[in-house]
Design brief:
The complex is a heterotrimer of chains A (345), B (357) and C (349). By secondary structure, chain A is an all-alpha fold. Chain A contains 13 helices and no strands. Classes of the chains: A mainly alpha (345), B alpha+beta (357), C alpha+beta (349).
């Protein structure tokens, strides 16, 4: 910069020196902070030895894990075995498996109305229905999208981005966007009346409410699964296709006999992840339909949340018992995924 | 600068022992080279000295102080890694200053040391560069510079030249030797290349399978190998090793049909099998009576020297080195004589048989 | 769907297979379906309350033109009126009585007309109602929510980066007693979503006295198993020689971590930072459970509360939704590729 001709140099030099000064002072501050941490850490190392320092590094993270995952898990169990309304386990009377018995007290497991805790079972039924519909449409659409995006398409990056961007949106935003479109006087009903149809009250009809819950969930998360599948597709060596071409294989046969089998590991990941997500669904549906109409889109997690926090009587015991049941289901699904990824790698 | 003593150093990974009790004394200021084929434990031994590996048994002492349990950072040694291990996010200057900062030296002192080392290694113009922007040779010099600035008790060098191309390797070899002469520190240098060992070492330690085979000056090892392994390992091209039988005390016969050759057979009994070692340069072309008559397989004309690779029935291929340009072709017979003063005899276990033993 | 080579062949001889047309049709539909709703949200957020309630809605934010007419203190709305004699004129409405409106000609204020409202059409022009954005800033605790969200996101991400990288460093560089147990703990955490332990974490937060504090949102999710895994995988690829060289250079273990490993793990840290920002900015269930006072609401909770309370004030709600979208949109525009590869490599979100 200093070597530049005068006119430019005169202006450039102060900026450069200011920048340098800024950087130097920044470095000085950072250096000071570093020395502040370095010293005690070095001292600690002298004290406990190099070998034991590893535990110092592990400690914060594991402390957080313990405090906010493992201890709560134990408390969860304690909650589910105790009754009363107190938040503090010590003030709660032991009731054994009463909460579970209450939860599972059903005339018939196929009819939520016959259960004492019918909302929980409605949640179970809704969640199962939601998960199945969501899984099927999610896998179908993300697979088709991935296959299309894997073609030599002009503007592939753009299209990939288009399908991907809702993934980043918050569930609340996603739900509000669609709520705004689906409301009585919304864009969709305007379109319907324009083509001569009738307005539909989407959130008053149970079937429509469930349909849109699934639709919005697929809309929001499809891009994520598409990416996983696209990565799998791009990992398939091109010479396999060349070989197939040399053998004059029809396109559909290439898809069925080469692409899909080689994509299978990624598909499994997608299926299991979509299943786990489906079972845990809460926020989008909650903001979109509030669980309604009635209990038509009430999911298990919403039931747990409302039982523990949003109802008149905060029934922590029942919520915990429901959590544990949900946890067991999720655990089994995760195990399936882990064993799957193990065997894949 | 300091001396180093290893006493019965052992190392095992689980049940697999890789170092089987090494004893070694290294004097202050010595340039020691650990040499051996890959997997011989030379790098492990160096890392044990560095403190990067724990020992399973034995004792390491620097200047008489036991450092066996002292962590690497406190041993006061410096190491040049095979990969150089330059910190990629730091400039050359920062790379060299890092250790000094850790030692808590004053800024001015750090600056002086870094600049002095950089000058010595012709790196002064590159101090603000990151390692990525340097050539292989420059990176190598930074790695050495990082060790020099520390003014360590002992320099440890783990195959520092193996990532350089042949020409640069020869040049750097000489620079390293000159550097050692200049700063005079104790250096322990690991290589699998016996030429590097021969050219640089004050003393060479030949390792095989986690054991020391022989320790000595380069010429010691060359002239008086203790065993077959050292004999075969040191010297290029390799020493010819021919199976022989003791005909009578002081006389062996090469193969089935060869003439008897005079060599000290020591305690070997008549009829015992042994191995006769003779270096290619100690075989001469015979005018008259030959020790062995061979047939030329391959001729290599190097200009200054000529190598013949010749065979005789029942014997491994024999390498013969002749000064100058010997004009003989493939398929010609080549009668040779072995220089009696430079013959080595090894018993069936591979140990050297020496007169008077 | 088919080999790339076949497509190249198609390009060469100019044939279009039906699948190509189907693919572009699918993608075109996708653009409408994926982008449309958000575009609609943004357009709607600039509409007046009145035009939001209109049916059928107009595509663009239009608002009725108003004119100042001599003799009237207020500006009057402008209509295109069809007069009895079939003449069309632009008239300003003075008042409306039942189905009849009393109109005035802005060009000639002395002439007034009575026109049935059925023969009036509002004169509208494109206008972006920015007050939807500026008013919530004054009227509601919107800035408070925004600040809360920024605070939570920033602090939580910093803590996450620090403690996750420390754990990842320990689990990738060292061999030590209990390593398997530590790894199992991390994997175990991976399997336990916050939904399961909502209530007891709430208890822990209560015991710590943090209910309604932003720290209640920040702390429980600070240690993420995914983050530890991501960083560990990356740190495993760093050359061991560097660590050992640093150790030979008398660096303490902390210095090795902070001055060697952290700078070198910057790419992985960046990925985790982006993920963490996304997680935190969008987090919903846990803040919903633990934040009950509106002054500690984050943006998402605020939005949710807002849509519950003020069904009618869609104009503000939509505008606030757009604002909450902005950081995510920025992240998307600049780091899309980065995030995409991150997800493709780790399968996490």
């Amino acid at each position: 910069m200093i070597d530049l001709p005068d006119g430019i140099g005169l202006q450039a030099v102060p900026t450069a020196s200011r920048l340098a000064r800024l950087r130097r002072s920044g470095a000085t501050i950072l250096g000071a902070v570093l020395r502040l941490i370095d010293r005690p850490m070095g001292l600690l190392q002298r004290l406990i030895g190099e070998r034991r320092m590893v535990y110092v590094f592990l400690l914060p993270n594991l402390a957080f894990f313990s405090l906010f995952v493992f201890v709560p898990l134990a408390i969860d169990l304690a909650y589910s075995l105790t009754g009363g309304e107190s938040l503090f386990p010590s003030q709660r009377p032991y009731v054994g498996t009463e909460q579970y018995a209450y939860l599972f007290d059903c005339g018939s497991f196929f009819d939520p109305a016959s259960c004492r805790v019918d909302h929980f079972w409605r949640g179970v039924a809704n969640t199962m229905r939601f998960t199945v519909f969501q899984l099927v449409s999610m896998v179908t659409f993300s697979l088709v999208t991935a296959l299309v995006l894997n073609m030599r398409i002009r503007g592939r990056g753009f299209f990939r981005a288009v399908y991907f961007f809702p993934v980043l949106l918050s569930p609340v935003v996603v739900a509000l966007v669609w709520k705004w479109i689906l409301q009585r006087d919304g864009l969709l009903n305007a379109g319907l009346t324009m083509i001569g149809g009738q307005k539909i009250l989407f959130f008053v009809d149970p079937g429509w409410a469930m349909f849109w819950s699934v639709f919005v969930s697929v809309w929001a998360h499809m891009g994520f699964y598409t990416l996983i599948l696209l990565a799998g597709l791009q990992a398939i060596p091109a010479d396999l296709y060349e070989a197939a071409q040399m053998d004059a294989t029809p396109r559909w046969r290439v898809l069925v006999r080469i692409t899909l089998p080689l994509l299978w590991p990624n598909l499994i990941v997608v299926i299991v992840l979509a299943m786990i997500r489906g079972v845990q669904t809460f926020d989008e549906v909650f903001v979109l339909t509030g669980g309604g109409p009635g209990t038509a889109t009430l999911m298990i997690v919403q039931y747990i949340y409302e039982t523990a926090f949003a109802s008149q009587v905060q029934n922590f015991g029942l919520a915990a018992a429901a959590s544990i049941v949900l946890g067991v289901v999720l655990f089994l699904l995760t195990l399936a995924q882990l064993s799957r990824t193990r065997s894949a790698s | 600068m300091a001396g180093l003593t290893l006493r019965d150093v052992r190392k095992a990974y689980g049940t697999v022992a890789v170092i089987h009790g090494v004893d070694l004394a290294i004097a202050d200021g010595e340039f020691i080279v650990f040499v051996g084929p890959s997997g011989c434990g030379k790098s492990t031994l160096l890392r044990i000295i560095a403190g990067l590996e724990d020992v399973t048994g034995g004792e390491i002492a620097i200047d008489g102080h036991d450092v066996t349990r002292v962590p690497a950072s406190d041993r006061g040694l410096a190491m040049v890694f095979q990969s150089y291990a330059l910190y990629p996010h730091m400039t050359v200057y920062q790379n060299m200053a890092f250790a000094l900062e850790n030692m808590g030296l004053a800024r001015a002192e750090i600056d002086a040391r870094v600049r002095r080392a950089a000058g010595m290694l012709r790196l002064s113009d590159y101090l603000e560069r990151k390692p990525k922007a340097l050539s292989g040779g420059q990176r190598q010099r930074v790695a050495i510079g990082r060790a020099i600035v520390r003014d360590p008790k002992i320099f440890l060098l783990d195959e520092p030249l193996s990532n350089l191309d042949a020409e640069l390797r020869v040049a750097t070899r000489k620079e390293l030797a000159a550097l050692h002469a200049e700063i005079g520190g104790t250096m322990i240098y690991v290589t699998h290349d016996q030429v590097e060992a021969m050219t640089m070492a004050d003393r060479i330690v030949v390792l095989r399978g986690g054991r020391i085979e022989q320790v000595g000056t380069p010429l010691d090892l060359y002239n008086r190998p203790d065993n077959l392994f050292v004999a075969g390992f040191i010297g290029s091209p390799r020493m010819n090793l021919l199976p022989v039988q003791v005909v009578s005390p002081g006389l062996v016969r090469v193969g089935e049909a060869g003439e008897p050759i005079k060599v000290a057979t020591g305690p070997l009994a008549t009829g015992a099998s042994a191995t006769l070692g003779v270096r290619p340069e100690h075989i001469t072309l015979a005018d008259g009576a030959a020790d062995l008559t061979t047939t030329i397989d391959i001729v290599e004309q190097l200009g200054g020297d000529t190598y013949f690779y010749a065979s005789a029935p029942g014997l491994p291929q024999i390498t013969v080195r002749q000064n100058g340009q010997a004009l003989r072709g493939r398929g010609e017979t080549l009668p040779v004589r072995f220089e009696p003063a430079h013959l080595h005899l090894f018993d069936a276990e591979g140990a050297a048989v020496r007169p008077g033993v | 769907m088919k080999p790339i080579q076949l497509l190249r062949a198609r390009r060469r001889n100019g044939h279009w297979h039906w699948t190509d047309i189907a693919a572009y049709a699918y993608l075109g539909l996708g653009v409408v379906l994926m982008f449309g709703p958000v575009m609609w949200l943004v357009l709607s957020s600039f509409k007046t309350q009145a035009s939001l309630l209109e049916f059928p809605p107009s595509l663009l934010p239009l608002s009725q033109q108003e004119v100042r007419v001599e003799g009237f203190p207020q500006p009057l709305p402008l209509f295109a009126a069809t007069l009895d004699n079939g003449e069309r004129r632009e008239l300003a409405q003075i008042r409306r009585i039942g189905l009849i409106a009393q109109m005035v000609d802005p060009a000639d204020p002395k002439r007034q007309y009575r026109v049935p409202t059925a023969r009036l059409a509002p004169v509208r022009h494109l206008s972006f109602v920015t007050s939807n954005y500026t008013e919530p800033l004054q009227k509601f605790a919107f800035t408070r929510y925004l600040w809360n969200s920024v605070f939570v996101t920033t602090i939580a991400t910093l803590i996450t980066l620090l403690i996750n990288s420390m754990a990842a460093y320990a689990l990738s560089i060292y061999e030590f007693r209990g390593k398997t147990i530590a790894m199992l703990m991390v994997i175990g955490t991976l399997m336990i979503p916050i939904t399961i332990i909502l209530v007891p974490v709430y208890l822990v937060i209560t015991k710590l006295g943090l209910v309604n504090s932003l720290w209640a949102v920040i702390l429980p999710g600070a240690a993420t198993p995914t983050g530890v895994f991501l960083l560990r995988q990356y740190m495993l690829t760093l050359p061991r020689d560097l660590i050992e060289a640093a150790r030979m250079d008398k660096a303490s273990e902390w210095q090795i971590y902070w001055r060697i490993v952290m700078p070198l793990a910057a790419p992985a840290l960046a990925v985790l930072a982006i993920f963490s920002i996304m997680w935190r900015w969008n987090e919903f269930l846990w803040p919903l459970a633990v934040l009950t006072r509106s002054e500690s609401f984050t943006l998402q909770i605020g939005l949710n509360a807002f849509q519950g309370e003020l069904q009618t004030q869609w104009n503000y709600l939509l505008a606030m939704t757009v604002v909450s979208l902005v950081p995510v949109a920025l992240v998307f525009v600049f780091l899309q590729r980065f995030i995409a590869t991150g997800i493709a490599n780790t399968g996490m979100k």
